[in-house]
Amino acid sequence: MDSSKPQVLLFSEAQRYTAGNKWRFVVQHTDGREVLDITDAEPDAKGERLELLAVIRGLESLDSPSRVTLVTTSDYVKRGIQYGLAQWRADDWRWERFGLIVPIKNQDLWQRLDRALQYHEIDCHRWRVDAAEAADENLPAKKSRLSHVPSRASLADRISRAVGACFTLPQPALAG
To answer: What are phi and psi for residue 158, nearest 5 degrees?
Structure first.
């Protein structure tokens, strides 16, 4: 990664299985000088599309090319960035599915993400809160994945373990 670019943490999530159809991202510069915490709803989007929107909107919110550490709750986004994006671009946004060459799912959003990555360098990590972890902390099981986080310090510790750096984030607020 280019060390002359500012480094930021982008944390994203989507509420996939509720009627809210919400996505959320938090952007914080590593020096702690600025935090942007945005939540919005997309009534017509669901599931993986919401997960992609959260990441894209977070990247598009950055005002200059940056080194981005993306921490996402989505395997779909992480795998697409790490393993799919370059191949899809090379294959004109198509892939083989059961012997047929078909357009990739959410092609418009993957192309939008690809354009954003022309400006930003990204290091993607998946952050997971599973049922056992939630139970250990006596936290509700049906809320947003980010709402499982009991405190700012706990979130910073978990992310620090996941990405090897220390960040301080605001208390997550995405609720059903």
So the answer is: -65, -45
